[in-house]
Design goal:
Shape of chain A: globular
CATH topology of chain B: Arp2/3 complex 21 kDa subunit ARPC3
CATH topology of the largest domain in chain A: Thrombin, subunit H
Helix content of chain B: over 70%
Order of helices and strands of chain B: HHHHHHH
Number of helices of chain A: 4
Order of helices and strands of chain A: HHHHEEEEEEEEEEEEE
Number of strands of chain B: 0
Structural class of chain B: mainly alpha
Helix content of chain A: 25-40%
Number of strands of chain A: 13
CATH class of chain B: Mainly Alpha
Oligomer: heterodimer
Shape of chain B: globular
Radius of gyration of chain A: 25 Å
Number of domains of chain B: 1
Distance between the termini of chain B: 11 Å
Strand content of chain A: 15-25%
Largest interface: A-B, 48 and 52 residues
Strand content of chain B: under 5%
């Protein structure tokens, strides 16, 4: 392996290798310490990401190509069948939505009677998962929308079935999403059947959440749907999170051991929805036009 | 002028290593995917130590931090420490047979994983599965592959 090209090294100029190491180590530790306590480094990260994001998109390219080819070579009849099925589904959803609109209005009226303000209305942005692998022991995924689209940390992320997680960092062209199953993630939930409030903590396994803070005599049973409670302010209220699948009382401990399965298809979906909640509550005078449905999809590129 | 061209090749191989690092893989393959960036940096530090220095390692470490979305500076710290070791020992290491080199690579990768583990635990203590340590072993096993491939690049393109 050695080729005779090392003479330059023997008379190297500039700072010695030990000094260089010292500078590099001090600089790294300074970066680590700064990042722990503040977000001042985000601009630097965003700048560097202009070099790095092309790599992410490059690695993602094969799966995009496979998807597109499989779309373009699927047969005419299959497409027609799928189209029919989707149209039917859409019709059903539309009628259901009509009923929901009425219910929503009724709900606002009732809340107005109780002199209670009601938050509603969300905007969503469809983002696509980048199929890249950045650490198998953490439940963090990356999507192809970033600050360019107004994505910011702590935004909730949903899919068609339920809550997926929240944005933890956004770069100009991509952002990172922590899934609800990450061991460092907790989400305030509510049992849909009786309104019991608790917190669901990630287990580190792809299809399991733990509910560690419920006493042994809590009114909860397998099959109960857990929805977001809206407490904590990050997640909007009322989206399905998980279904309870096991309730084991532990008589010698203060809390029961309860596990639940997330509703969202955490490791299968490619399309995710990033949500903006409207923070201004609907006014109590219920006869205003703002009560109309505000759910819309501004961007579907 | 030839040198500049050669450095482009080095960067290209490291970008390729970054692609491999985040390539989507099924199941167990994802867990044992070794740190390709560090392996290729080690190769270049041993082969052309006057071209690849600690600051290069530090810069590529920062870029890897952005790539992996981890705490800023942790890969920069580990990469510059390990490249320091390589630069200190490169004259002896070049004389070693492949097995002995492999042992050195094993300890380098182990050190890097230990540092990452330590920084991660400082951030917030969390239990990691035993598979966290597997990339050290697979990385060592991949060393002959990296060595042959990058040596081919170096000799065919006259990187020096």
């Amino acid at each position: 392996m050695p080729r005779n090209s090392t003479i330059k090294l023997l008379f190297a100029t500039g700072p010695s290798i030990n000094t260089r190491l010292l500078v590099a180590v001090v600089a790294s530790i300074a970066l680590l310490a700064t990042e722990q306590t503040s977000i001042r480094l985000d601009p630097l990260r965003a700048t560097l990401s202009f070099f790095i994001d092309p790599i992410k998109y490059l690695v993602d390219l094969p799966s995009v190509l496979i998807e597109q080819t499989s779309n373009s070579i699927s047969s005419y009849t299959a497409l027609k069948k799928e189209n029919e099925r989707l149209r039917e589904e859409q019709l059903i959803q539309q009628t259901r939505l009509l009923k929901f609109a009425a219910l929503e209005k009724e709900n606002i009226r009732l809340r107005a009677l109780l002199e209670n303000s009601f938050k509603l209305g969300e905007q969503v942005l469809v983002a696509e998962l980048l199929s890249i692998n950045t650490g198998p022991y953490e439940h963090i995924v990356q999507v192809n929308k970033g600050t360019r689209f107004g994505v910011h940390p702590q935004q909730p992320v949903l899919d068609a079935n339920g809550v997926v997680g929240q944005v933890i960092r956004s770069l100009p062209l991509s952002s990172e999403i922590m899934l609800i199953t990450d061991p460092n993630h907790a989400i305030p939930v509510q049992v849909n059947r009786n309104g019991l409030l608790t917190i669901a903590v990630g287990s580190g396994q792809m299809n399991r959440l733990n509910l560690p803070y419920l006493p042994n005599n809590a009114d909860i049973q397998p099959g109960d749907l857990l929805i977001t409670s809206g407490l904590g302010g990050t997640f909007p209220q009322g989206y399905p999170v998980a279904v309870v699948d096991e309730f084991t009382p532990e008589p010698n401990k203060p809390f029961a051991s309860i596990t639940a399965t997330p509703k969202a298809m955490l490791n299968r979906n490619r399309e995710l929805m990033i949500v903006w909640s409207n923070t201004t509550p609907i006014p109590l005078t219920s006869q205003q036009p703002t009560n109309d449905k505000k759910v819309e999809t501004p961007a579907d590129e | 002028m030839n040198n500049y061209y050669g450095f482009g090749r080095i960067i290209l191989t490291i970008v390729l290593a970054m692609c491999l690092r985040i390539a989507p893989m099924p199941g167990i393959m994802a867990a044992i995917n070794p740190d390709w960036v560090l392996l290729s940096l080690i190769y270049w530090a041993l082969a052309v130590p006057e071209r690849v220095g600690i600051f290069h390692a530090w810069t590529f470490g920062l870029l890897t931090d952005v790539l992996m979305g981890r705490l800023f500076g942790q890969h920069a710290l580990t990469y510059s420490l390990i490249i320091y070791l390589c630069l200190k020992l490169h004259k002896r290491l070049r004389q070693f047979p492949l097995i002995q080199q492999g042992l050195f690579i094993f300890f380098c990768l182990l050190l890097s994983q230990l540092l990452l583990f330590w920084i991660k635990n400082l951030q917030h203590p969390s239990q990691l599965p035993p598979s966290f340590w597997l990339p050290v072993i697979t990385g060592t096993l991949c060393w002959p592959l990296i060595y042959t491939a990058l040596r081919f690049v170096r000799l065919s393109r006259r990187v020096k």
